[in-house]
């Protein structure tokens, strides 16, 4: 079968129309495939943060024995991304706490008495106060001792805040669902704390080790900025480097404002 010149020209025009239609149909599909492939992750290679941590009480959660201790940290953090995939963002994290405040309950006992039998009566007042492992309990009463009269005592509860510094140079963080703005995470840290006087009791020492493990949520406001809210089990103890080592277990709440690139 032979085609005329007009027939060849007509076929060429049809072929061009088919190619144009195919390209128009393929363009949205390619664009869709590219969108699926390049779904962005809310993550940063280097992250810096400012945080505040607070625990209003302590008790025997796992290891610590000292009760009714408060803890406040003001600090900064640094994260470095290690592994990133569709499921998890694994990061190294270090924390520095230039302000580390620990509060111990103290029972102040005031004793008043009068001594007879040695000439003129002698009246005395004695004031004592030391932190104990257990919680403070207000008390009062009378003591009967031969040779003394009207010996009374009254114990009231107060707080002693001790300032120090802390650092957790060893830490890991695992953020899950990195392609979502709201990401759950797990973390853990280890380090040490130095205080200006022994904590949580007088013979426990001023140098303590610390570690924690926690879980929380991180909300990304943009690619570079986010807010973290978390709860941690936090432990402080001196590793038996001092005569007494009751340890402190806190349930610590922390808020971090993070940014980076």
Can you give a write-up of this model?
13% of the residues lie in helices and 58% in strands. With 261 residues, the protein is mainly β. An eight-stranded antiparallel β-barrel has the order 1-2-3-6-7-8-9-10. About 5% of the residues have low confidence.
Count the strands? 10
Order of helices and strands: HEEEEEEEEEE
Principal-axis shape equals: elongated
Number of helices: 1
| Fraction of helical residues | 10-25%
Poorly predicted runs: 24-37
Strand order of the largest sheet: 1-2-3-6-7-8-9-10
- Based on helices, strands and strand pairing, what is the structural class? mainly beta
Distance between the termini: 68 Å
The description of the largest β-sheet is: 8 strands, antiparallel, barrel
Mean pLDDT: 85
Radius of gyration over C-alpha positions, nearest whole angstrom: 34 Å
Task: State which percent range the strand residues make up.
Answer: over 45%
């Amino acid at each position: 079968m032979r085609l005329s010149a007009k027939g060849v020209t007509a076929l060429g025009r049809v072929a061009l129309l088919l190619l144009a239609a195919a390209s128009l149909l393929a363009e949205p599909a390619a664009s869709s495939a590219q969108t699926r492939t390049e779904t962005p992750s809310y993550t940063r290679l280097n992250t810096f943060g400012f945080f505040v941590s607070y625990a209003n009480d302590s008790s025997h959660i796992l290891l610590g024995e000292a009760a009714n201790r408060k803890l406040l940290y003001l600090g900064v953090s640094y994260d470095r991304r290690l592994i990133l995939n569709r499921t998890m963002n694994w990061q190294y994290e270090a924390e520095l706490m230039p302000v580390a405040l620990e509060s111990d309950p103290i029972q102040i006992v005031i004793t008043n008495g009068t001594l007879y039998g040695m000439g003129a009566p002698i009246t005395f007042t004695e004031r004592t106060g030391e932190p104990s492992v257990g919680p403070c309990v207000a008390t009062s009463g009378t003591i009967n001792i031969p040779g003394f009269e009207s010996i009374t005592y009254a114990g009231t509860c107060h707080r002693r805040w001790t300032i120090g510094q802390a650092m957790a140079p060893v830490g890991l963080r695992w953020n899950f669902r990195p392609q979502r703005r709201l990401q759950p995470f797990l973390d853990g840290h280890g380090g040490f704390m130095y205080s200006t006087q022994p904590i949580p009791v007088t013979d426990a020492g001023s140098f303590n080790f610390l570690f924690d493990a926690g879980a929380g949520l991180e909300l990304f406001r943009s690619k570079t900025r986010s807010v973290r809210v978390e709860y941690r089990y936090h432990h402080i103890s001196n590793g038996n480097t001092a005569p007494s080592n009751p340890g402190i277990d806190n349930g610590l709440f922390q808020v971090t404002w993070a940014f980076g690139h």
